[in-house]
Amino acid sequence: MSELAWDEYQRRLREEDAIVFVPVGAVEQHGYHLPLGTDWMMARYMARRVAAKVGGVVAEPIAYGATSQIRTGGGPHRCGTTSLNAETLIALLHDVLVGIGRHGARKIAVIDSHFENRFFLDEACHRAQDTLALRGHEARILKMLYAERINPETMAAVYRGMGDPPGLDLEHGGVLETAMMLYCHPELVDMSRMVDEARPDFPPYDVYPVNPDWVPASGCLSSGRTATREIGELLVEEFVGHVTDAVRSEFR
Hints:
Strands 2-1-5-6 form a 4-stranded parallel sheet, sandwiched between helices. Strands 3-4 form a two-stranded parallel ribbon. By secondary structure, the protein is an alpha/beta fold. It has helices spanning 6-16, 38-54, 70-73, 86-102, 118-134, 152-158, 175-184, 229-250; strands at residues 20-24, 57-58, 65-66, 83-84, 107-112, 140-145.
């Protein structure tokens, strides 16, 4: 979107009824071997891949996301993890969506890559839809966590040979994210910095202030040692397919 002149963007909306994709991620630690921008980079990658398939336009990503939680993202205490509070994230996405909709976009797809964003993005989409409707703009908004669903066959392939796979609950900085980054942004992955640590044994509750000692020193919740580019390709291509199917289903 930012690379288009304003009149070309207007033409895409008016003549092509183009879908506008809004990637949303986070700036959050992902261990020693992955960059802080892993989430927003993957959201942007997914949006670009799907937009290329359906003739869409990709808006600039919302890089910052909701606060990292101990049991899902390792918590907010490691250097570089920079988050928005809930009200700010809701207001930011709301304003972006309204700005896109008021210029004539009728189809908007919000592509999320950070689990903690989930319900705040829901609220932002609700509010934006209400605002646009009150102002007389017709727009439909799809919001999707791109990794919402993984086929069992794919998970079996990802964890093949692992006697005790961590499961999705501990997949922060682990095999899935490492493999996908090896496929999409290999120049940003340093496998030599991978460390093997005991997995955390979280209780079924949260405590505030958060206790950093619940999380391994690297910030990862499981090891990405077995990640490969081939596993990343398997995952990414499946996710691209899921998002493409959703977009085509809702924006016919």
